[in-house]
Give the backbone structure.
Amino acid sequence: MYKKFHIAIIVALAFGLGYSVNNIAISDTAPKIAVIDATKIVANSSAVKTLKAEQEKKMKQMQATVDKARAEISKETDPAKAAKLEEKYRDEINKQKLALDTDYNKRLTDLDTEIRATVVEKAKSLNYDLVLPKNIVFFGGDDITDIIAKDIK
């Protein structure tokens, strides 16, 4: 019993010593942390601005299709023909909307991937270990938003 107690103490001391040595070795190099304002970077991106402008143009075109459909349906006096026209235009508009949303989401995802790659590349070249969004950091970190924004198209 007394022997087991000594073994337990030796194991605990060895664990404590090993843990302390590990902390000392790790604490010599503090991580270099940067923060970025992702909203500002995205808002200043010319590619994102172009994408949004194209999206608005396509939405106006779709609205014109909706207006045309309403005008045609309202001119139709036969309820059965009006219902068929309404169904035809509903299907056409839904297809346009789906294609528009799918294309927009794909292009937006591609831009997001490109922006992330630029952030990673620039952060590595500046020797940062970690980049965090500015809106979740209360204190600390080097703000590299403007440096990144210059490299984003």
